[in-house]
Amino acid sequence: MTMAKWTKRILLSLVALVVLILAAAILIPILFKDKIEAAVKKEVNNSINAVVDWGDWDITILKSFPDLTVEIENVKVSNVAPFEGIDLARIAQLTATVDIKSVFGDKIDIKRIGLVRPYIHVKVLEDGRANYDIAKPDSTMETTPADTGSAFNIGLREYWIEDGTLIYDDASLTYFMDLYGLDHKGSGDFTQDLFVLSTTTHADTANVVFDGIKYLKNVKADIKADLDMDMPNMKFTFKDNEATINQLTLGLDGWLAMPTDDMDMDLKWNTKKTDFGTLLSLVPAEFAADLTGVQMSGKAGFSG
To answer: Could you tell me if 186 and 199 are in contact, meaning their C-beta atoms sit under 8 angstroms apart?
Structure first.
């Protein structure tokens, strides 16, 4: 047989293999969709103290070839006692792109994961019990040898939130915060022990109440922050960062660490803009009319 014929047969075989892979990628989720969904729901709900449900979903390699993309609509995580009636999360759409090669390895490499119109409601009781603490105890933890390698079995490179709502209600601290119109993006190589996490955050409106005093009411917030992430020591160092609340701009430097259950920190903050008018931007709209015609000027600096 001539070299040309061998080459032709090899090329035809490769084409046939690619066609079979694409066909399998399209047909397997369709043919076994109900069985896959039932098995996953059973496993998830057996692993947590909450009820998880979702609507339509799709898994394909066609949208991000050769990576694997999963899209799930109407994800809902409903709490049980003592948080009946609270949904920890309602997510209009969850989408994730996974390196398909990592599916067959020891660590799943998630390239991107995003939440569209998520509603997150975190509730902490006076005794410290929190509705996000839903994982059931792992009976194998005490008998499994300690892992001397990386603590992560899942790698993440980029994540984002689009048009979200976040409510944090902590009775143990008498602290309440809500964010509406929340957009957030973060990127960094979570497969590494040491890396830089770059983030941007925007909220159309933010409210903060602490110990019965409303410190922020319907303000607009923008935060840009880069953090040095030291995962083995759970230490996070603030690098270039800036937080803008209406027109008031703050900077933050230092670090925060959680090596154990305790939290250590060494943080400094200060105003980056000192015009007195920036403070007036924090006055709620219903009171701003009282300042009409008032002339104010000067500088104001804050640090801590």
So the answer is: yes
Distances (CA, A) of 290 to 4, 221, 280, 284: 88, 24, 12, 11
CA distances from 50 to 64, 76, 82 (A): 32, 10, 11
Distance between CA atoms of 61 and 111, rounded to whole angstroms? 13
pLDDT digits (tens, 9 = 90+) for 8-66: 555 555 555 555 555 555 455 555 556 656 666 676 767 788 888 888 888 776 666 77
Of 191, 37, 195, 229, residue with least CA distance to 106: 191
Q: What is the pLDDT of residues 81-96, one digit of tens each?
A: 999 999 999 999 999 8
Query: What are φ and ψ of residue 233, in 5° steps?
Result: -100, 0
pLDDT in tens, 143-190: 444 444 444 466 778 999 999 999 999 999 999 999 999 999 999 888
Q: Where are the beta strands (DSSP E) in 211-282?
A: 213-230, 235-245, 248-257, 264-271
Residue 106 carries which DSSP code? S
Specify the pTM. Answer: 0.76
DSSP state of 51: E
